[in-house]
Fold:
Amino acid sequence: MKKMKMSLLIGLMLLLAVFLVACGGDDSESSEGSTDTNGEDNGETASEENPETTLTFLVDNQTVTDGIEAVAEDIKEKHNITTEIELRPGGTEGDNIVKTRLATGEMTDIMWYNSGSLFKALNPEEYFLDISGESFVEKYDDAYKETVSVGDAVYGVPGEASSAGGWLYNKKVYEELGLEVPNTWDELMANNEAIKEAGKVPVIASYKDTWTSQLVLLADYYNVHSEDPDFAEQFTNNEAKFASTPIALRGFEKLQALQEAGHYNGEESATGYEDALEMLASGEAAHYPMLTFALAAIADTYPDNIEDIGFFGQPGAEADDHGVTLWMPGSIYANKDSENVEAIKTWLEYFVSDEGLETYMAEMKANGPYVLEGVELPDDAYPAVKDMASYLEAGKVGPALEFLSPLKGPTLEQITVEVGLGMVTPEEGAEKYDRDVERQAQQLDLEGW
Amino acid sequence: MSTQHEIMRKEKRKKSRIRLIVESLIVIVFSAIFLVPFYFIIVNAMKTSPEASKLSISWPTEFRILENMQEVLAARDNMLLLAFFNSTVITVISILILLVVGSMAGFVLQRRKGKSINIIGSTFLAGLMIPPAVVPTIWVLEQFQLFKTFPGIILVMVAISIPFSIILYTGFIATIPKELDEAAIIDGCGGFRLFFSIIFPMLKPIHSTVIILNAVQIFNDFVHPLYFFPGADNATVQLTLYNFMSMYSTDWNLLFANVLLITIPPFILFLIFSEKIVAGMTAGSVKG
Amino acid sequence: MKINKMYSYSLLIPAGLIYGLFFLYPTIMSFFFGFTRWNLTDWEWIGLENYIMFFEESSLMIGFKNTFIFAFLTAGLKVVLGLIFAVLLTAKLRTKRFIRSLVFFPVLVSTIAVGIAFSVLLHPSEGLVNTVLGLIGLNGPDWLGNPNLAIYSVAFVDVWKGVGIATVIFIAGMMSIPVDYYEAHQMDGGNKFNAFWHITLPLSRPAINAVIILALIGGLRTFDLVWAMTGGGPGFSSDLIASIIYKQYQAGFYGLSTAGNVLLFLMVAVIVFPIFKYLNRKEVDL
Structure:
């Protein structure tokens, strides 16, 4: 009885306390929260000589932050700015968190996010700091700049090297079977057949991580772009559809062709991205349609095998037009409403300065070319990245659709799984995707939809 | 005489042997179904990273449970310790509030009759069916400057848990005879005094039920803290599972060690209350 | 009059305030936003457009079908298994405390952890479940990868995780049945099996009703286990209404997803209320 009374008392007191806090919660407490310095007493120091500042930085847990952390260390040393990284989940769940936090004014000082369509769907003018006036923006590659700009305003700083989407392959398997890098889709299918006969897995489908299923479709965009350069614009303006544009439909058809020919690994839904990397690195499988950013993960987990991994772009119909689809790097964006705008600018400027890049590159090997002028691929780049560079030198390169159009239907990865597993035909998949895009455009309230 | 006695004894022994076999069989079947997944988690939590990545149920060749636990605890600047603190604060305070306000409401809802009380009751019960609206809730929290604060997340957790708690309380209170209240009235007790001095102490068994069911729910919640309590300093235990699942590779041994660690508090709670869960509902659930 | 005064509304105020402010109010707001195109900062009234668009969702039919399968299958299994377990565990079993704990263990583990562990255990070739099946010569299916099977596999895991609560509620119900009933029954020469049908079952009815309603409501609106195990896949084959809504929400279609929430609520109400009424009427009949 006594005990009960005691706990009752405590309960009531706590209740009271909660309400008191609730009513008396003064502005300073809740608005500073995470944006201000962490635990420093003199958080409000104005413009002293090099005052200590802490910047909060929201990053998803799928991005490799070693390079960023190394640069942040330098920045701490040189400018007395501490970087506090806060992790969030990746994928669509992460997108949702970013959107919610932006809308509720709870974003960190700087944040990491995709460039291109996903970024533009965030309503950047509302939330991000326009850095078009900074001198370092002049170093940007134009194609990249476009993906982090709205009108004349520029919002992003490239946070990594770009990557290419295409086919990673195991060179040892190719050597063993005496195969050559295919330059047309038919040659690729023939290679697959030979690999299958040799008892190896021709192509890995890792649909447990659904996002990986999109690669065959998305990496085919170079072929679309080179035949029909206006597709992206017409697609954005509701004038062209995947289902009714044969060259665009090809991507869905290729996804299915591999399934029909039995070139996938089996157990597709139980195979994840990591499993796929292991299969490729060990030579159990020959091909993995993927972005070149996977190379860093392979190098980390299977350092002995990274030299065996090569790369080629997803081939089309013509051997002399074999190119790659390029993915712009993820970018770092600054919160417009941060109290530390000056520190942020210092941070960003250092990050893309020669010194910053040097530190970065010492820690992280490139997945592809950097999007800053005058920054060359180092000689010790991964072999696969060198393979990729040869396409760039030949000018056989085009950006992925998501960097040319603000539209990317949110359920694409489920649709490509369906097509890849043979649950629906390519036509049905394309139609589904067109409807998905239509819905997105209507929800974004785009003109012409 | 003696032979008959012996036969009976034999019979009895035979019966008890069958009983033993049946019982052992039951134990084996239940263990296989309910314990093997835990066994799987535990053995893998003890292994080295490469061995755990095979995800087999074999016994570890090398025991690394302490190292794994240390590594889990130290990961990301002792994030797990902070998360334990945060989750515990949220759970304990939410439960305390829930016990008081839930039982008060359950009492009135059970005792009063009439149309208006029925409407109020249904409104509370509708909460079981309505999925919480995330963004408007954030918006409301911001109005009160409670977003990203302990009081904010606690009040939301309480609000979400109230309907189920009220069901449990009304069910139990229905078994407390009304005569008791009437006797109290004659003694000149007011509403609050009646409740707190007479009724509330009698609710002990159902409090246990409310505590364990809700505490486990709140402690294990992943989604709500993610939305209503974001921020690096505000990590909760479920979020720590993400520490070991990254694009690079999943450290299964650490992931499972983490699962083990964060299951300890609910487990302790269960040990304390396990006998009382049933007692609380014995009366309560009958009246639904 | 006097009695009602005893049960003063003021006792309701704290619960009402918290529930009203932090649950009902946002919910009502969301009903409103269901009629708008909403990007969190701005909204535009678009009437029923969201509702129409929600019904045009291509995977909606799959979602409906799966939601029904999931809700009724899990509720049914929890009732049946829970009853069986409860009968076992109220019998004279020496190990009943141990088994009762076993059955309740999964309740203690978070959904995410359960999802992670089971997606590993259900792996088609390397998972424990199929390895065991292989030992007895059976070729286990791809539990989560087969589009026709995935939702059932998740449902079984949900039962595994949730049957403990049902069992406890049933045990509570059975333990509150006065022993004299059974004694009288035995005196009349009834056997144990009959006792179950004529005493245990009817007198556990309120507990059964409670489990049915709770499990049904839970099954109709949860999706976290599906999300942790299959993400609604392969493709859309294990999507539930709730996971479709969640995906729309993730895509930033706030108006659309709130409209979906309203519809989900209506659907739950339409299904659960008649069943609730029906069950309660039966209770009176007895």
Summary: Chain A touches chain C at residues 15, 92-93, 95-96, 99-100, 103-104, 121, 123, 126, 207, 210, 267-270, 410-411, 414-415, 417-418, 421, 423-424, 432, 435-436, 439-440, 442-443, 445 (CB under 8 Å). The domain at 53-161+329-363 of chain A is CATH 3.40.190.10 (D-Maltodextrin-Binding Protein; domain 2).
